[in-house]
Amino acid sequence: MNPMYEYRALLACDIAGSAGRGEQRLQEIRRVLRSALFDALGMSDLDARDFVYVDTGDGCQLVAPAALPKARLLFPLLPELGSRIREHNQHAGADTRLRVRAAVHAGEIRLDPDGTVSGAPFEALARLLDSAPLRAAALAGTSGTPLAAILSHHFHEDTVGHGYEGLEADAFTAADVRVKKYAARAWLWYPGSPVGPRVASVPDSGSGSGSGSGSGEQPAQPEPRAVRQLVQATENGTVFAVHRGDQYIRHNDRGDTRR
Q: Which tens digit of pLDDT belongs to each residue from 28-64?
């Protein structure tokens, strides 16, 4: 049986700072990410069994079914995933809390009869996941954001701005990505992004293949206004989600939510 080539939407996730936690804790946070992702798929009316799931050690890749509209990998999936990671972090110890980087792309991939997948789109996906702008977005705020995502320019063009529910153009920030020989415009999304930092064009180290999750990572810093400054200006509240231009703030001392 010959391999097939099909155009597919792709999502990759990577746990930031996973190295150095020890084997048991690594397995725990991997389980938490998988569970959060599958729960988010279910809440988005998507069946995890329709996706190809690839474990990457400290993250995963999802290959969407051929007929799935690309916008379904963004909304409500990303907010749902971020919400579940945030809920986990509220009750987890420091050594099992998650910060997750995600990358979204699409292209023609190879599907072999044994179920393996490959192709150039996965290379672009890995470069986006390892990029300095995404690393900087993941560190926005006083303790980092639970989920920061980056879209390839191709994916952004085909989804954002076409009037799909939840995909407001102002929620995405342009960034120039340069990793090894890969150089392209991309688009960031993270909780609070419409009022958060504008990430500059920053050259990457080019040393990673997509995992890049060591605890000593030193990503480029955003400019000029960080979410940290906004948090200090809102009585120690934490900006934790933005949908359709609405800003939601959680006040840590009371645990309530204001809009």
A: 999 999 999 999 999 999 999 999 999 998 899 999 9
Distance CA 162, CA 157 (A): 9
Cα–Cα distance for residue pair 110/158, rounded to 1 Å: 21
Tell me the pLDDT tens digit for each residue of 96-110. Answer: 899 999 999 999 999
Q: What residues form DSSP beta bridges with 242?
A: 247
Structure tokens at 50: 């329709």
* Chain length of the chain: 259
Half-sphere exposure (CA, 13 Å, Cβ side) for 106? 22
- Measured CA to CA in angstroms, residue 208 lies from 89, 126, 140 at distances of 27, 9, 21
pLDDT in tens, 68-92: 999 999 999 999 999 999 999 999 9
Quote the tokens at residue 167: 């995909």
Q: What is the pTM of this model?
A: 0.74
Residue 89, CB-side half-sphere exposure with 13 Å CA sphere: 17
Burial class (CB in 10 A: 0-12, 13-18, 19+), 134: buried
**Distance, CA of 103 to CA of 14 (rounded, Å):** 9
As a whole number of angstroms, the distance between CA 257 and CA 252 comes to 9
> Do residues 141 and 105 lie in contact, with contact meaning Cβ atoms separated by under 8 Å?
no
pLDDT at 259: 40
CA 64-176-208 angle, 5° bins: 65
